[in-house]
Amino acid sequence: MDILILAVVIALVAVGAISGLVVSSRKKKQLPPPAPPSTPTITAPPAEPQMGEDAVETAEEPRRTIEEVGLPEAAAPAPAPVAEPEAPAAPEIEVPEPTAGRLVRLRARLARSQNSLGKGLLTLLSREHLDEDTWEEIEETLLVADVGVVPTQELVDRLRERVKVLGTRTPADLRALLKEELLTLVGTDFDRVVKTESGEDTPGVIMVVGVNGTGKTTTTGKLARVLVADGRSVVLGAADTFRAAAADQLQTWGERVGARTVRGPEGGDPASIAYDAVKEGIAEGADVVLIDTAGRLHTKTGLMDELGKVKRVVEKHGPLDEILLVLDATTGQNGLTQARVFAEVVDITGIVLTKLDGTAKGGIVVAVQRELGVPVKLIGLGEGPDDLAPFEPEAFVDALIGD
Ligand code: GDP
Fold it and tell me: What's the CATH superfamily of 204-348?
């Protein structure tokens, strides 16, 4: 009897073990290979992008091999994700950096490039004897930094007068004095807020103009990030149909932050794309529509015709809220000439100065504001996606002369 019971127990255990093996081997077989991420066939991002999706975070985590994770090879259910580098990646929605304090973050970059302006002035003013030669050097420093003839003269006159009144010059006095005078020159009264609200139920519409090569498309893309960072939804209009890669470039910027791009055929009519972009913005209930335009300075009449038409057509939907002129800070006088031409063609409401990281000519901020009577609203300080900062006079001047 005992033997019989033992035999039954052994038989049951054996059946259990076999069925377990079958199940576990089935389990192994059933383990699906890592599902390839879905490939978007549409170029536009999802209508309601989920900011901060996991994908963003995991993408930055170094992938570990099975050995590193410490799993015995037999337990590895399927090839690790690293084995499939070819899998097409779903578009990842990035979370742009907040805009507040961006200029402070980028201050070192600005300070490095503008060393000769701010610190140079401070060194000269600290000389024991402020003779005529020194004042000439001060003047030259300002002119070389593209401050412009008239503002330079004004500043030198003010400094001469105030230094005389000051009598003894401690480094702290001089720094405070220079900071105050530079701030006056840069201007603290301008409204530098980029206007993004129409005041109606429709999106705010911003047109971005400027000569090709100044960083116009990049700036439009970066501005989309600035707006998204501030919680706005954005539609982009790729109305630069002249430069072949511009629409692709803009669309890539848009996809990164979940902004739809309206585009047309290469060489197509920029005005109709701009019109469609605003229409799309209205249909989507977007907060802001950003329109990139072509900046061929072929002839003034040509430019006027093109930009004028874009503007007129867009305004069928409602008035434009901003026309931002993008200027490359490294181009000096040339940039000012461009600014003049554009200002004759359209009513510029704000200036974006790009590439301030690559030039010592920060004085262009002063010169261009004087030239157009329009404030610098944003500055570009690098090629990184979040290297566009709202222009804050105080942080700017602080960066020039250091703490
Ligand atoms: P567009 O023809 O005016 O649209 O010019 P793009 O937007 O294509 O920009 C031209 C080049 O300028 C690109 O290589 C950009 O990365 C670069 N660029 C734009 N803004 C800045 C900036 O603030 N700093 C630096 N260093 N490069 C910039």
Answer: P-loop containing nucleotide triphosphate hydrolases (3.40.50.300)
Please choose from 112, 113, 218, 330 the residue to mutate so as to test ligand 1's pocket, defined by most ligand atoms within 8 A of CB.
218
Whole-prediction pTM value? 0.78
In angstroms, what is the span from residue 301 Cα to ligand 1's centroid?
26
Boundaries of every domain in the chain: 204-348
Q: Cβ(381)–Cβ(242) under 8 Å?
A: no
Identify the burial level of 275 via C-beta atoms within 10 angstroms of its C-beta, where 0-12 means exposed, 13-18 middle and 19 or more buried: buried
pLDDT per residue as tens digits for the range 339-382: 999 999 899 999 999 999 988 889 999 999 999 999 999 999 99
Does the CB atom of residue 218 touch ligand 1 within 6 A? yes
> Which atom of ligand 1 is closest in space to residue 380's alpha carbon?
23
Q: Please list the residues that pair with 288 across neighbouring strands.
A: 204, 234
Instruction: Give the distance, in angstroms, between the CA of residue 291 and the centroid of all CA atoms in the same chain.
Output: 15
